[in-house]
Design goal:
Chain lengths: 572, 373
């Protein structure tokens, strides 16, 4: 007997997400993913100044702030043929790295860890033993028995107050939690430390972009001028602050995040065979060492993998109008020439047309249109995007530093290479790329310092700033990698204004509804086979959903086989 | 279990904070709220004796930058205490529970504390086409908003989305995005605009309610005067460059490298009311102008439609920063710049005029008190 499950809302980058799924014999047999909020950005952008587009699109998401601004300025620069100074590339890279480090750490501790760490169990821990475990896996100094006893005391007080606050109504005590009490206590302590640390690293955005969330960008470069002999510009003091923040970030990632990730993963190896989903992975690549246009030395290489065949990396182009197309056969839009054929984003259309049930509703018509997300395909294939895709493409492209961290992690956990294609693999890949990024950020920082030392302080190319210098018509694409995966903006400029603008964001790839062939996208595919041992407390579903990093709160509403409401499930 | 809700001090003590920590926290709160040293005792007393204020936080058409900003603002110990001290009974972003358990908590709070709870809203609400553009759990945002606002003691509208519609309300406003104040006619609405607002400003707005048991003084647009009564231009450390006629002419030019005024690069500081020049961002590290980009005016109504961002204000008919009242009046009469708030016009006058208007504004506010005791 199948049980109908409704997950609503899973809030992610641009809003509200709902998943309906069928559970049979304790496993999910089918799933549907629906975006239930729309703001019409693409309609609002029409007719605007292309140089303003970064500010508009940045507001697509305040959690992974900056990533849309970056894709946007690249799209405009591509259209107008602007090459930005290397210093600006380095500043953009540093902001990119700061975003990844903040976002991935927050995801692990504040969005995902509670799927694996039982907070209440930590009360039973022996702080002395937690200390021993902590010191066996890391040199992180905050590890004394007194420190952990203190944390434990705080949790006890929290629980005894009768008001569990943000920890209320979790699945504490669920048999799927397998960590010893002492490791749970370690996890809780670092949950609190990570909360404290996360607001420090974003100060890199504040230095270069003036604020966080939503720092400022600039078509042609970066808005922060360099002048080492001026208090009003990027000088030794500002750069020293960046350097210190990068050092602290690397320490936190290497001494807290990664040891915790490995310690937790070692207790959940069974999750290395659950939640694999799609066998195809897409990466646009990012972190140029010299220039955005020199894709060959990107730290994250560009490419696609099909059918988990790591021997071949396929070429990916945002400009080949046959490769990437968006379909709307299951989305609440209409195309001027019919809803069946896909459209390359340069020819993309955004005509809202809601045909779903009138709210309040219990169920969507999943046979018809059921989402505000369009369905993108690469050469007709559904693709997973995100940290796992990035690590796999880099691995398959022969990047030695990536191969080294992946292989050593597989060895430490004593799991086969196939373990990567899973819920656990996705979560581990996120941690591994964070370590790499912490190191790369310091290379970019050194490059910036070295340029300044050699007298190169250029930060913006303004040759094409004035609209009078632009061609009558131009098309561009800006490719990037957001923390959650491949991100691109396509722009058509006519008469100095935006004629068409299309965003295809990571969650469009991962969370979209079916395509006209009935192929599932990544969320829908990965849920199939995920166990649900207790429909009232489906912590397993959350593990797989959260392994994609769906940003913020999600709620799982459970229904019985007749579609009758059973339960709604707490998540975080 | 306690027979009375724990006071904030009792809670802090239970969580292992010393009295010294607690005093330090209270001093921080006072500082964040802009209270002079003599007011610290009052804050301390409020925290010692007050049970936790029930708070519910909603998300509609938004990008979650307000939640992110709020989290950034928190001082380490403050992060824990503020989240607990205000008894955040419902928040999709932070609480472990959502869905059934969260809604259960929400409804329990709405019932038990009817007329007592504080409601925080992030996001606008789409009214077009029966609200189908934002549904949560199969219900429209409008439905959810109305139900919760009915029993709220006060509403805080976080950010520009909830305060004035923000980006989704920019032309042509495809979904009919509407700010909360235009939907809910509640006697106590506080707007905290910005995209996002400064984290410390958000925290301080809540702190003010807690510490003084009253809504902070608000201006005619329901914004806390403490943070929105000064133009960014008037509190900008680059202002002397403006007065001396020293301007950046092109990004990254020699003048940019000297940190001259960004007015000619489109800076909206002269028409934007916010605390960026004083409080600054991310614990005072910087703010947009300091980092070399003009203010885009993100705390002003319709700022998205007052662009393009890099077209400097004098390029708009009548919006030269030192224009006379007559020119500005003509421009507005001709609707040359749709959606520019009237107060912004007023403050584009000469400095002398500005001071005069300031006095007048003060009188107007005295005549029509909003908030306060």
């Amino acid at each position: 007997m199948a049980t109908r499950i409704v997950v609503d809302p899973i809030t992610r980058i641009e809003g509200h997400l709902r998943i309906e799924a069928e559970v049979k014999d304790g496993r999910i047999v089918d799933a549907y993913s629906s975006g239930t909020m729309v703001r019409g950005f693409e309609l609002i952008l029409k007719g605007r100044d292309p140089r303003d587009a970064w500010a508009f699109t940045e507001r697509a998401c305040g959690v992974c702030t900056t990533v849309h601004a970056l894709a946007s300025v690249r799209a405009v620069e591509d259209a107008l043929g602007i090459t930005v100074p290397q210093n600006a590339e380095m500043v953009r890279n540093l902001m990119f790295c700061a975003q990844y480090m903040q976002d991935h750490v927050v995801h692990f501790y504040h969005l995902h860890a509670l799927d694996w760490v039982d907070v209440v169990s930590a009360l039973k821990a022996d702080p002395q033993k937690t200390c021993e475990i902590a010191r066996s896996i890391s040199r992180w100094p905050r590890s004394s028995p007194a420190y952990f006893a203190d944390v434990q005391k705080r949790i006890a007080a929290f629980v005894n107050s009768g008001q569990l606050g943000i920890f209320a109504n979790g699945y504490w005590g669920h048999p799927a939690y397998k960590l010893p009490a002492e490791v749970n206590l370690l996890g809780v302590a670092h949950y609190l430390e990570a909360l404290e640390w996360q607001k420090e690293i974003v100060k890199i955005h504040t230095i270069f972009g003036g604020k966080n969330p939503h720092p400022n960008y600039l078509v042609g470069g970066a808005p922060c001028a360099i002048n080492v002999d001026e208090a009003n510009a990027i000088n030794a003091e500002r750069l020293a602050m960046v350097g210190q923040l990068l050092d602290q970030a690397q320490q936190f990632i290497e001494m807290v995040y990664i040891p915790d990730l490995l310690a937790v993963a070692s207790f959940y190896k069974d999750w290395a065979s659950v939640g694999g989903g799609l066998p195809n992975y897409l990466v646009y690549g990012d972190l140029p060492v010299h220039s955005y246009n020199d894709t060959v030395d990107y730290k994250f290489p560009r490419g696609a993998i099909l059918n988990r065949d790591l021997s071949t990396v396929h070429e990916v182009s945002g400009k080949d109008t046959e490769q990437i197309k968006e379909f709307i056969s299951h989305s609440w839009y209409e195309y001027s020439d019919g809803d069946e054929a896909g459209k390359h984003p340069w020819k993309g259309e955004t005509n809202l047309k809601y045909t779903g049930p009138k709210p309040p509703y219990e169920h969507l018509n999943v046979e018809g249109k059921y989402s505000w997300l369009k369905t993108p395909r690469w050469n007709g294939h559904p693709m997973e995007v995100g940290p796992l895709a990035r690590m796999l493409v880099a691995y398959a492209s022969g990047r030695e530093e990536v191969q080294e961290v992946v292989n050593s992690t597989l060895k430490k956990l004593d799991v086969p290479v196939t373990a990567l294609f899973s819920t656990l693999g996705r979560t581990a890949a996120r941690g591994l790329e964070t370590v790499l990024i912490a190191g790369w950020a310091k290379e970019f920082y050194q490059q910036l310092l070295s340029n300044i030392k050699n007298g190169d302080t250029r930060m913006a190319n303004t040759d094409m700033w004035e609209p009078e210098t632009w061609p009558e018509e131009a098309t561009g694409v800006g490719l990037s990698e957001a923390p959650r995966g491949a991100l691109a903006h396509w722009i058509v400029i006519k008469d100095k204004k935006i004629d068409n603008y299309q965003l295809v964001v990571p969650s469009t790839w991962n969370a979209s509804p079916r395509d006209p062939q009935g192929q599932r996208s990544a969320y829908e595919a990965s849920l199939i086979g995920t166990p649900v041992n207790n429909p009232d407390q489906p912590v397993e579903i959350l593990r797989t959903i959260h392994s994609f990093d769906p940003c913020i709160a999600c709620a799982v509403h459970l229904y019985d086989e007749k579609g009758r409401y059973i339960h709604q499930v707490a998540t975080f | 279990m306690q027979d009375h809700p724990l006071t904030i001090w009792e809670h802090a003590r239970l969580r292992g904070y010393s009295r010294r920590d607690f005093l330090r926290f209270c001093s921080w709160l006072a500082a964040a709220a802009g209270i002079e040293a003599s007011g610290v005792g009052k804050v301390l007393h409020a925290m010692d004796t007050k049970p936790r204020l029930p708070v519910v936080w909603f998300h509609f058409q938004e990008c979650t930058c307000c939640s992110e900003s709020f989290i950034r603002s928190s001082h380490p110990i403050v992060a824990d205490i503020i989240l607990d001290k205000i008894s955040l009974d419902y928040t999709e972003t932070l609480q472990a529970a959502a869905g059934f358990q969260a809604e259960e908590a929400l409804h329990a709070t709405m019932k038990k504390y009817k007329g007592e709870y504080l409601m925080l809203v992030e996001g606008s609400v789409p009214l077009k086409d029966d609200g189908v553009y934002c549904c949560i759990g199969g219900r429209t945002a409008l439905d959810i908003l109305k139900e919760a606002a009915e029993g709220a003691k006060a509403l805080i509208c976080w950010g520009s989305c909830a305060s004035n519609g923000c980006i989704q309300a920019a032309a042509p406003n495809p979904t009919g995005a509407t700010p909360i104040g235009k939907i809910i006619h509640h006697p106590q609405v506080i707007n905290v605009p910005g995209c996002p607002p400064i984290g410390e400003v958000m925290a301080a707005t809540v702190v003010h309610l807690l510490a003084f048991e009253r809504v902070p003084q608000l201006d005619g647009l329901s914004r806390p005067k403490a943070f929105y009564s000064r133009r960014v231009h008037d509190t900008c450390y680059r202002r002397p460059n403006y007065d001396a006629g020293l301007f950046v002419e092109t990004f990254d030019d020699e003048n940019a490298k000297r940190g001259y005024c960004l007015y000619k690069m489109g800076c909206r500081g002269p028409v934007t009311y916010n605390a960026c020049g004083v409080t600054r961002w991310n614990n005072g590290v910087s703010f947009p102008i300091q980092s070399g980009h003009g203010c885009i005016g993100c705390s002003e109504a319709s700022f998205w439609d007052n662009g393009p961002f890099y077209r400097h204000l004098a390029s708009f008919p009548g919006f030269g920063i030192e224009s006379t009242a007559d020119t500005v009046g003509m421009a507005v009469g001709a609707a040359a710049v749709a959606g520019m708030a009237a107060h912004a016009v007023v403050t584009n006058l000469s400095k002398r005029k500005h001071i005069r208007e300031g006095i007048k504004e003060g009188k107007e506010n005295a005549d029509t008190p909003k908030g306060g005791a």
